Amino acid sequence: MLIDVHCHANLYLVLDEIIKEAEKAGVQKIISVGMSFNSLERILEISNSFDTIYPALGIHPEEVKMNENIENQLETVITIIKKNKDNICAIGEIGLDHHFIKEKKFYPLQKTIFEQMLSLAQELELPVNLHTKGAEKIIFDILPSYKIPNINIHWYSGPEDLLKIGIDRGYYFSITPAINYSPAVKKTVLKVDKELLLLESDGPVKYSGKTGAPSMIRVVLNTISQIKNINSKDLELQIEENTKKIFSKIF
Q1: pTM of the shown model
Q2: Alpha-carbon span 163 to 158, nearest angstrom
Q3: Residue 232: which CATH number?
Q4: What are phi and psi of 238, to 5 degrees?
């Protein structure tokens, strides 16, 4: 069984077709992660409509730039998450972004929201799905202050020394279709043991102009298999077991 642990299913115009393609590729479960205040209810709605979709709720670091009201809406976000704590499988997508968000004036609010989301994950005993772009060291310095059941680093492309710290701490790393062209993603795959690898599409993000979709993680699996010289079926079983450990509520 293949599981896409990080997808923005609410952003597809024709989700039915995306799910059908995924099922044809052997993808049986898709975790749909939240990004914005406005996306949370939609994610819960589609998870109720499709058996394949499992909700994770959180606020993406880019929301501080995209939504000038997010600070005032944060209490409502926390209320929504707590209300649905039995239905969601993780807190995410959360984190910090100092790469795509260049304006430093946004960084304090990013950190405030991130820490509140971590506190919530600790309180609800839920794993987290993390965005770390350009702020890997800050995030890795913050994480030990919280007792989080499990941590997944989504699309890691940061420094190798921090990658080693994450591996030593037992963090999971979900791999995207960017593995087919990104040296940083390939390095992550080479360094991370198979016991800590997960699969994700991050759809509908584009890869070399092609819209990302959960069906693509079959190709990601096969590419990892080749890079690490592991039988693809054995690797699929291992990654399924990894996913059961971190996102147990979807099984």
Answers
A1: 0.98
A2: 7
A3: 3.20.20.140
A4: -65, -45
Strands (E), 89-214: 90-95, 128-131, 151-154, 172-175, 197-199, 206-207, 210-211
Domain that holds residue 133: 2-250
Q: Which residue has the tokens 């005993």?
A: 125
**Which residues, 6 or more positions from 61, have their beta carbon under 8 angstroms from its beta carbon?**
94, 95, 96, 97, 101, 110, 113, 114, 131, 135
- Tell me how far apart the alpha carbons of residues 104 and 81 are, in angstroms, rounded to a whole number: 28
What is the C-alpha to C-alpha distance for residues 20 and 184, in angstroms, rounded to an integer? 31
Contact of 18 with 203, CB cutoff 8 Å: yes
For 225: left if phi > 0, alpha if psi spans -120 to 50, otherwise beta; the answer is: alpha
Q: How far is residue 225 CA from its own chain's centroid? A: 21
- pLDDT tens profile 28-77: 999 999 999 999 999 999 999 999 999 999 999 999 999 999 999 999 99
Q: Quickly tell me which residue has 């929201």 as its tokens.
A: 113
198 in Cβ contact with 188 (< 8 Å): no
Q: What is the tally of structural domains in the chain?
A: 1
Cβ(31)–Cβ(90) under 8 Å? yes
For a pLDDT cut of 70, what percent of the chain falls above it?
A: 100
